[in-house]
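Fig. S4 source data, part A: sequence.
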Amino acid sequence: MRDFKYIVTHDGPFHADEVFACAMLQALHTQNKVRVERKTPSPEEMEDPGIIVVDVGCEFDVRKSNYDHHQRDFTLERDVTEGYGIAGQQNPLASAGLIWLQFPVMLTEAGALQQGRLTRRDLTGFEPRVDQMLVRGIDASDCGISGAVEAGQSPTISQCISWMNPPASASVTEVRMAFDKALVVGRHVLHGVLIAAEAWCDARQVVMEAETAAESSAIVVLPDEHVPWSEHIFDRADAADLLYVVFPSTRGGYMLQQVPVKANSFDGRKPLPEAWAGLRGDELVAVTGVADATFTHAGRFCGGAESLEGTLALADLAVRA
């Protein structure tokens, strides 16, 4: 674990770039309360590796803990081959990206995550996932390559942080207080993203290890836990053969859901039988012969039963329909 004396970033209006870079560094530090000084760094601070200079100073040098990206000769971008960018697009690194790509695993070791929260510890893809969820967009916005958000669309995290700046007439003290509030927001958002990214890795491991049903190799059965599976199902070796996924329902009982035709699609490979559409309880039992069948959605993309056995029976009937 690496500790340091304090962080220096620029004063004046603040942006998500340096706010999240500082939030990451505070999560990295063992005390989690390392101070942030907003000013122009002195020559002595620029040379001291124990002082981390972020988004100011016009120098990128990890040996001296200087992480700026504004200098004319700065040319670093994300490494697409390692999953950190998108081929054929600009993948700039701003200060948030420089800090994340330098210290990602150390952040998880710093206690930024709730250790022991998840049962699996295979974090394959964790770092690029955090970059995709949060850091990449912040960097792109700071470097001026993100498109403007259209009216009525959800604002980006960069815009939200920007809106926390006080009016131009605000005093130095008011700006400092606003930055401190933004930094608190940044730490909370970062914590949530790290937890979500770890859960993504955990879900991937569950899906990749799940077995198919004895009744049919077209049915995957997830274990006794609810995991988001749709983003990972296509990475399985048998992905092309799968039609349904069976898993415990958060409302009790079990559900089966059709596999979509492709990731993030609402169209499924094989909707449940039309005769089942919208039926519940005794009506569905009468049609299917499954004693504990509970429902089939009118859209025919999912259904379920009280027991795992009943849900597997429905899935098998749907495969053979």
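Fig. S4 source data, part B ends here. The longest strand covers residues 244-248.
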